[in-house]
Design brief:
The complex is a heterodimer of chains A (about 675) and B (about 300).
Chain A lengths: L5 H15 L8 H18 L8 H18 L6 H15 L6 H17 L7 H21 L10 H23 L23 E2 L3 H5 L5 E7 L10 E7 L1 E2 L4 E2 L14 E3 L3 E8 L9 E2 L9 E3 L5 E3 L7 E8 L2 E3 L5 H8 L7 H13 L4 H15 L1 E2 L10 H9 L1 E2 L1 H14 L4 E8 L2 E3 L4 E5 L3 E9 L3 E5 L1 H5 L1 H5 L2 H4 L22 H21 L1 H13 L4 H29 L4 H15 L10 H11 L4 H15 L7 H17 L2 H7 L1
Parallel strand pairs in A: 13-14
Antiparallel strand pairs in A: 1-5, 2-7, 2-17, 3-8, 3-15, 4-5, 6-12, 7-11, 9-10, 15-18, 16-17, 18-19
Helix pairs in contact in A: 1-2, 1-5, 1-6, 2-4, 3-4, 4-5, 5-6, 6-7, 7-19, 10-13, 20-23, 21-22, 22-23
Chain B lengths: L3 H16 L4 H12 L3 E5 L6 H11 L4 E5 L6 H5 E6 L4 E6 L6 E5 L6 H13 L1 E4 L2 E4 L5 E6 L12 H6 E5 L6 H9 L3 H6 L7 H12 L5 H16 L3 E3 L3 H17 L7 H12 L4 E2 L8 H11 L5
Parallel strand pairs in B: 1-8, 1-9, 2-5, 5-8
Antiparallel strand pairs in B: 3-4, 6-7, 10-11
Helix pairs in contact in B: 1-2, 1-3, 2-11, 9-11, 11-12, 12-13
The chains are: A alpha+beta (about 675), B alpha/beta (about 300).
Chain lengths: ~675, ~300
């Protein structure tokens, strides 16, 4: 049995703490209690105040923990339960470390728990933290193998840092080159609940809820031309059914296929790449209007981009969109019925007014829309906190309150259009986004959520009209954070986030730099899987199995040989101080010039001989010898600097001396 | 020289050189040996000045000396002394032998039998002799300077290893250089010169010197070198056996004294190199020819193989 030293115990506890801390936010309270109690018990046991637990006590603990886990996680099987089980096991193992082997088990499992941290957070911060945890765990492993006579608290840490630093290049190579294999099994993740975003119903006021959140929705980087802010309409879903109050997607609409949804490109196209944050919905985002869906996705009804399986993980896809287009020049009867659907009664005042305007517009939908927008821009205000609307909300909005948010305007306009027999629908999505100049990408957050209207004209297809632009044009041209900066309701769920919206100055720069860093992190690290083949292809032409194997093995062999070399070298000169090494190089140089020092020659004797062979060196060499004697044998550390200076001087003189000088005089 | 003691020792060396021309290195070694409180073995052919050196050392160090000429029929009692029955008071009285002095000159020690040689053992190591159950302390300081003829000569009993090990140093004088010999031949009577040698140090000062020598600063680098040397004699195939720890201690002791004689306050590898051959030459044996005392050749080999800087 190998004794476990005090330093090793401290390191084990540190490793345990390091790997458990990331999970504290969601672990059940009793498990946190256990995680606090067992390290304390371990200290008591190590201090000899408590004895090691009896088997019956251990059995009791195991049963209690098992019961606790069953009760706590009975409803959700999956990631959390598994990690909780691991953490509980780790905590229990702490109190029964008898042998070195037990400590090894503890630390290996710690490494595993450390990796599970990534199941819950994948930020740069987490990665840095995990790296530090690994350093701590390796230090703990190191401390187990310390000589029990010479234990030290800090030495394992130094070694661990060195080891991790050494393995870093190898880690990078493996990251870049190692083939990504899809998961062989999948574990259900329980993180659906927290994600906010657009929903499949649009009641007045829904979108203003979203403006309270600064959560990231998606990021976009463009290949070439970047569309103007006013063109950045990111369509996500289309609401077709109105019940008098709420717009919604009718059941089954997702499975619809538009009968003939032809898209004709009329102008420039834009290529871009979207990194879409997990949303757990089927709808993705696409710039108005996407041309073709990438693999695993499809263009659904209403020309929205959809994914076949839920977007429960971060998605990365490339798209091409047309900014000027003609969409669906013909509408079938069934579709016409869907896009004209209205509740049979209610909102009578609005219907009446729509009829009037329709007559004023001579039955021309475009003029009708202009008329409505004109009305909006004249007497309506755009606000995040509109007054509540009672029955007949369209009436209430149009005639009484005249205050609303994009959802109100889009819904009202679609209602008015439908009531006069023009097919119309409400489109939900995002508008705008913040441009990051450092990394050239667009960040779109939940508060950029938006709704607008599309109406259909025979021969022209769907026409996008954004009534919000008529009421508050700056919302479209500028980003929403600028528009709402003065509104207390904006970002009210994230009070600290408001700090980030300083108008200018270094704060904005720092924030943008940080976001750029985050973007790259997501794009190149977290989503590297999607980039790998492309990246490798750029790196080494076409990617073949042989190339991959060579590329994996060569750096590995390289790193290993470098390590072996430093090991061997270290054995030769590990005891040497930097001063000694400098002196050694000087002596090696002299040897190459044909004046090797004999083994039994002290520096004094050698300097005499060198001085005879090469008079220019006589003086510096003799000073070197006496300085060296003072440092090495009289152990006068004050002379170390002199010795260094004189070694440098010898080097300098040597550079000016030719080998011939030696041969002639030697 | 700021140190009056060192000046006195230098004076002693100068004086000795007047009687033993051109042998400064050997004189220095001999002094080093005595200043390190060790016994000295001088090995050389007859007529090389061994006895002169021994006498000279006794004089300049101001020591009371006795000379014993060892012969093959000598008995231990001849050196240590004997208890004689005195009829007047009916008891035995110890008559001290020549060993009771500060400096015993044991001339031609290998001409006597091992039994008599061994009689010196206790005296040399412990500074005391035991006769008939009584232990008698020898005066302090007590030195033995032994001379011996090379083992290859007729009528010699080689000293056993245990006896050899008691000697801190073994030196040999060697033939003088031609010009020195010429000066010797042309010069006056060395015997009368010997009588005129000044007394340079008192026994008390001798003790002081020894204290100073043991205070010489010894860095770990020097110890490393010494250890490498000693280890080499133990590991190498050249040696049938290596230097004992006592040998290593002896080496360090002599090297310190040498450093002090050089007027240095710290030990350097040169000091070890200078005293290496006299100190370990008689303590090692060649693996090829175990009977021979080819110490100097082995020591040269040793020096050439072990790196000073490590």
């Amino acid at each position: 049995m190998k004794q476990i030293s005090r330093a090793a115990v401290i390191w084990q506890l540190a490793a345990f703490a390091a790997v458990v801390i990331p999970h504290l936010s969601w672990l059940p309270f009793w498990l946190i209690g256990l995680c606090l109690a067992t390290p304390a018990a371990r200290l008591m046991i190590h201090g000899g105040r408590w004895s090691l637990p009896h088997w019956s006590l251990k059995l009791l603990l195991i049963l209690l923990v098992a019961a606790g886990l069953l009760v706590t996680f009975s409803r959700e099987t999956g990631m959390k339960a598994t990690v909780a089980l691991l953490v509980a096991g780790l905590a229990l193992k702490l109190v029964e470390i008898y042998h070195r082997r037990d400590a090894l088990v503890l630390l290996y499992v710690s490494l595993f728990v450390c990796a599970t941290g990534f199941l819950f957070h994948q930020s740069i911060g987490m990665a840095i933290y995990a790296l530090l945890s690994v350093v701590v765990v390796i230090a703990a492993l190191n401390s187990i193998f310390q000589d029990p006579q010479r234990t030290d608290l800090l030495r394992p840490l130094k070694r661990s840092v060195r080891l991790v630093a050494l393995s870093f290049p190898l880690m990078l190579v493996l990251f870049v080159l190692f083939p990504r294999i899809g998961p062989l099994w999948s574990v259900p993740m329980n993180q659906q609940s927290a994600v906010s975003g657009l929903s499949d119903t649009l009641a007045p006021g829904d979108i203003s809820q979203l403006t309270k959140s600064d959560q990231l929705a998606f990021r976009v980087s463009f290949d070439g031309r970047v569309p103007e802010p006013a063109q950045r309409y990111w369509r996500s879903l289309v609401y077709t059914e109105f019940d008098g109050r709420t717009w919604r997607i009718p059941p089954g609409y997702e499975r619809w296929h538009a009968e003939e949804e032809g898209l004709t490109v009329q102008g420039a196209t834009v290529d871009y790449e979207v990194i879409y944050e997990p949303s757990n919905r089927n709808w993705l985002v696409a710039l108005d209007q996407p041309l073709a869906a990438p693999q695993g996705m499809r263009i659904g009804p209403g020309h929205t981009l959809m994914i076949t399986r839920g977007a429960d993980r971060r998605l990365n896809y490339r798209l091409r969109s047309a900014l000027e287009y003609q969409l669906q020049s013909r509408l079938s009867e069934r579709e016409r019925a869907v896009y004209l659907q209205l509740p049979p009664e209610g909102n009578l005042r609005s219907r009446e007014r729509a009829g009037q305007w329709w007559e004023e517009a001579y039955g021309n939908p475009e003029r009708f829309v202009d008329r409505v927008l004109d009305q909006f821009s004249r007497t309506f205000t755009y606000t995040l906190r509109p007054p509540a609307l009672a029955n007949d909300p369209i009436d209430g909005f149009l005639f009484d309150t005249q205050q609303g948010f994009c959802g109100h305007y889009a819904g009202a306009l679609a209602f008015l259009l439908r009531s006069v027999g023009v097919p119309a629908r409400v489109v939900g999505g995002y508008q705008g986004g913040e441009w990051n100049p450092y990394e050239q990408y667009l960040t779109v957050r939940q508060y950029d959520a938006h709704a607008w209207t599309e109406y259909w004209i025979e021969g022209r297809g769907w026409v996008r009209v954004d009534p919000t632009a008529a009421v508050s044009p700056e919302r479209i041209v500028e980003s929403s954070d600028r528009v709402f900066a003065g509104d207390p309701a904006f970002l009210s769920d994230a009070p600290l986030a408001r700090l980030r919206f300083a108008r200018s100055g270094w704060l904005v720069d720092v924030r943008r730099q940080l976001e750029a860093l985050n973007f790259n992190w997501h794009r190149w690290v977290l989503n590297y899987q999607g980039q790998q083949m492309q990246f490798l292809g750029r790196l080494m032409g076409n990617v073949s199995m042989e190339k991959m194997i060579v590329a994996l093995l060569v750096p590995f062999a390289l790193v290993m040989s470098v390590m072996a070399w430093t090991q061997l070298r270290g054995r030769r000169s590990s005891a040497k101080s930097p001063l000694e090494r400098k002196l050694s190089t000087l002596l090696e140089k002299l040897e190459r010039l044909g004046l090797p020092r004999l083994p039994n020659e002290t520096l004094q004797a050698y300097s005499l001989r060198v001085g005879k062979a090469c008079p220019v060196l006589r003086d510096p060499m003799s000073r070197l010898a006496s300085c060296d004697e003072a440092v090495r044998y009289a152990e006068d550390d004050a002379q170390k600097s002199d010795l260094l200076a004189v070694i440098h001087e010898c080097h300098r003189v040597l550079r000016s001396v030719q080998a011939i000088d030696f041969e002639e005089r030697a | 020289m700021s140190d009056p003691l060192l000046k006195a020792v230098e004076d002693a060396l100068d004086a000795l050189e007047r009687v033993l021309l051109g042998k400064r290195q050997q004189l220095r070694l001999a002094l080093t040996c005595l200043l390190s409180q060790g016994h000295l073995l001088i090995e050389d052919l007859p007529g090389m000045g061994k006895t002169t050196l021994a006498h000279g050392l006794a004089r300049v160090l101001g020591l009371e000396d006795h000379r014993v000429q060892f012969t093959s029929d000598m008995l231990p009692a001849d050196i240590i002394g004997v208890s004689v029955f005195e009829p007047s008071n009916s008891e035995f009285r110890f008559h001290a032998g020549p060993i009771f002095c500060q400096l015993l000159l044991a001339d031609e020690i290998n001409r006597t039998t091992p039994k008599t040689q061994s009689a010196l053992l206790e005296a040399m190591e412990e500074g005391q002799v035991t006769v008939d159950g009584h232990t008698y302390r020898l005066p302090k300081p007590f030195f033995v300077i032994a001379t011996q003829n090379p083992a290859t000569q007729y009528g010699t009993f080689p000293l056993p290893e245990s006896q050899l090990d008691r000697f801190l140093m073994r030196i040999s004088l060697g033939y003088p250089a031609p010009e020195v010999e010429r000066a010797l031949l042309m010069g006056g009577d060395t015997r009368s010169e010997l009588q005129r040698l000044p007394r340079c140090l008192t026994p008390n000062e001798l003790v002081d010197v020894q204290v100073r020598c043991s205070g010489i600063h010894t860095s770990s680098s020097v110890i490393d070198y010494l250890q490498r040397l000693v280890q080499f004699t133990r590991d190498s195939d050249l040696f049938s056996y290596g230097v004992s720890p006592r040998g290593a201690l002896a080496l360090l002791r002599c090297a310190r004294t040498w450093a002090w004689l050089e007027g240095r306050a710290h030990l350097v590898p040169e000091d070890i190199q200078q005293v290496l051959e006299p100190v370990i030459g008689h303590r090692i044996r060649s693996a090829e020819d175990i009977g021979s005392h080819a110490g100097d050749r082995l020591v040269n080999e040793l020096l050439a193989k072990v790196d000073v800087l490590g």
